[in-house]
Each structure stands twice: as C-alpha cells, then as structure tokens.
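Propose amino acids for all 233 sites.
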C-alpha cells in the first residue's frame, strides 16, 4: 500500500516530537544528576579544584563538558562555573576552556534549535522573553546588535544563544558572535576566580565588585535597547 505525502509528513512530525521529548528527558536527567551537583561543587572553588585534580579523566575535558552542559540546560547559572574555572586553572587557561565550552555549547544549541524550532526554545523561555528580543530577527543592523548585546556583561546570553537559532543568520557569523561575545564576562569571572585561588582576596573583591556594577549597568542598557527597538518596531 502506497504511503501518502500527508502520512509521511505526520510521521516526520511524530518522530520530531519524539526526538525532542527524548532530548528534553536527557537534558532534564543530566541537569538533575549532574547540573545541580555541578553548581554546588563550583560554589566551593577549592573543593572544585581538588576534585578536578583528583579525577582520573582529563580535568580540562571534564570542565569543558560542564560548560557545554550549562549552556544546553540554560537554567544552570554560568558564573559560578567560570569563577571555579579561574580558580582551578588560572585566568588564562580558565578563559580558554570557558570559551571552548561556550563555542561547543553554542553550536549544539543553534543546531538543535534549527532542528526542533520554537518548540525547543519555549521549553526554556516563555513567549514574553522571546518577544523582548524579537527586533533582532528583522533589524537591518542585527549582526552588530547581536554582537553588541552579547558583549555587554549582564545580558541573558543563554536566551540570546537559543534565540539566534531561530534566525536565518549564517552559522559561522553566529559562532563568532556567541563565542567572542562571552569573552568580557568570562575574563572578569576567571580573573576573580584566579585571584581567590592565589589568595589575593582584596583584588578578588575589587574584581567582583566592579564586575557586579558593570553587569547591573549592562542589564539596564540591554533593557533600554530592547525597549527602544520594540517601541519603534
């Protein structure tokens, strides 16, 4: 019996939904079994460093995998992990490892969103969150805006990473934006973490204090940019 085009389309949709459910189940399980303990571990940098050093596997690979999971799961905060990376590996190596993990995680997110579409994004973010950045889809200056917003400390980079997967921007451009755009926030966190690891507590307090102020200012600027462009849309 010949299968109709409608039946084939229904079958493809069913398989896509099944694949999405499997992916979400895996991410949920990893977030519960690994993500939550990972954040708790990263909150104590000294214990984190000791665990990494005592691991039978390559500590750098484990850390990169943690960063990738943090980006995929979206709801897991990235700052404690970045600080722990600076504490465990030093500012330079910690930054490089965070950027590698960010690049891999961003690539996976973009490809998954382009495969499963808005349904996947809505799992992590409500429609109103996406509505606030909708101007990035149609703005003639969207590439520059994406990079600018990504580089502002305090902006919701994981939300933006999921959102860019919904656009038709070329993958190499998105990879540059999603990777380099994380650099300022990562550098400040790893420098602070390294200062803690080397017992430069006053310097660490200054770094974190300045980072907090910049992040708050960045968040205000981000909200102002979103409001301006959405009002003029």
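Proposal:
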């Amino acid at each position: 019996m010949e299968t109709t085009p409608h039946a084939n389309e229904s079958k493809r949709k069913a398989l896509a939904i099944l694949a999405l459910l499997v992916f979400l189940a895996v991410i949920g399980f990893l977030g519960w079994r690994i993500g939550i303990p990972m954040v708790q571990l990263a909150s104590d940098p000294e214990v984190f460093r000791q665990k990494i050093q005592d691991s039978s596997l390559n500590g750098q690979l484990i850390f990169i995998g943690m960063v990738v999971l943090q980006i995929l799961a979206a709801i897991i905060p990235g700052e404690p992990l970045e600080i722990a990376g600076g504490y465990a590996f030093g500012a330079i190596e910690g930054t490089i490892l965070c950027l590698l993990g960010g690049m891999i995680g961003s690539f996976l997110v973009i490809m998954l969103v382009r495969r499963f579409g808005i349904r996947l994004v809505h799992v992590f973010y409500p429609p109103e969150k996406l509505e606030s950045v909708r101007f990035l889809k149609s703005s003639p200056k969207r590439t520059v805006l994406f990079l600018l917003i990504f580089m502002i400390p305090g902006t919701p980079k994981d939300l933006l990473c999921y959102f860019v997967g919904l656009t038709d921007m070329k993958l190499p451009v998105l990879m540059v934006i999603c990777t380099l755009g994380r650099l300022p926030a990562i550098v400040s966190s790893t420098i602070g973490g390294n200062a803690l690891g080397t017992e430069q507590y006053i310097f660490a307090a200054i770094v974190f204090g300045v980072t907090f102020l910049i992040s708050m200012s960045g968040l205000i600027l981000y909200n102002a940019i979103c409001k301006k462009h959405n009002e003029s849309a």
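The chain has a mean pLDDT of 77. The longest helix spans residues 5-42.
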